[in-house]
Amino acid sequence: MKAVTWQGKRNVSVENVPDPTIQEPTDAIVRITSTAICGSDLHLYEVLGPYMHKGDVLGHEPMGIVEEVGPGVTNLKVGDRVVVPFNISCGYCYMCTRGLQSQCETTQVHDKGSGAALFGFSELYGSVPGGQAEYLRVPFADYGPVKVGSELPDERYLYLSDILPTAWQGVKYADVPQDGVLAVYGLGPVGQFAARIGKYLGHRVIGIEPVPERRAMAKRHGIETIDFTKDTAEELRSMTNGRGPDAVVDAVGMEAHGSPVGAFAQNAVGFLPDKLAQKVMESGGSDRVAVLHSAIDAVRRGGTVSLSGVYGGSVTPMPMLSMFDKQIQFRMGQCNVRRWTDELLPIVEEPSDPLGVTDLMTHEVSIDEAPAAYRNFQKKTDGAIKVVLKPQGVAV
Questions:
Q1: pLDDT surpassing 70 at residue 205
Q2: Which residues lie closer than 8 Å to 302 by C-beta, 6 or more apart?
């Protein structure tokens, strides 16, 4: 089958790799009809190379049609249309039964001290082949895959695999008070949805984003927007009676612009041998923190900062004096996808499309065009906000 594979820093290629097979009785094989490039894929493309291996199959936002099921699968049958969550969870362990599927004790990657295994996301999370491919082996198929209807287009459902529940969790964790103000840093795919969800839940939402096309998309959905500058926190205070927003969602993460020291550290690690680079990242790695520090500065006293953007540094500097003095609350973590999908499925199926799931994709391309699509998305060129790959070909 064809699959998008990691070949090195800023280097992916489409290769022929062996078709997946049933390995456990609870497995299913899904023929992928749509799969998206995520901002987290860009972390593998740029920063987390020391944990990648040449030929790793990428991708963790897939959906498709069930082609085969193992003898232990009872909830799925061949022909079912499913969305596959990015974290691999069993559904029955201590963590899963408490809505913490991203910490699933059955699939935790113990040798790396990491949470649940993830599709297509480096040895940190199990080196499980991902979904940017024609077919995908799905473990724990009775629990993970979300069965969806057959009439609406893929783009109504695809984002249930990751970015929509990630944004939903980010806003829920932000704990915005009734009629409160939510600021969303970064209007990439997760930030777009976080802003729309905040609006859907009745809050005033201000999006912060340096890319004009992304601000324009958010404005279409009634979101106030401002550019990201060194004066962003002060501007947010001026828009909120001098206090700052009640809550902030950071939808940017470790590769934020405006962080030259963090950028230098990340690039320097990239020149080290993999094992040494891993040690540096695990004991001395730092993130780009311009956005995170701005969020801490901007949020009102007693407010909440919710981190949906991925951070990976071990010694990332934090302004503890300000955080303590302002009595800031923090919530964060990988999304517990299956905790939220039952809430979200009816919303994405509403005829009015209240979260605008059909107004996110900017590029739909065949899997063969994945290398160019990665470059465009990483450089934010050609208006790329959300890229969807079609492993079975683009409909004409």
A1: yes
A2: 326, 327, 328, 329
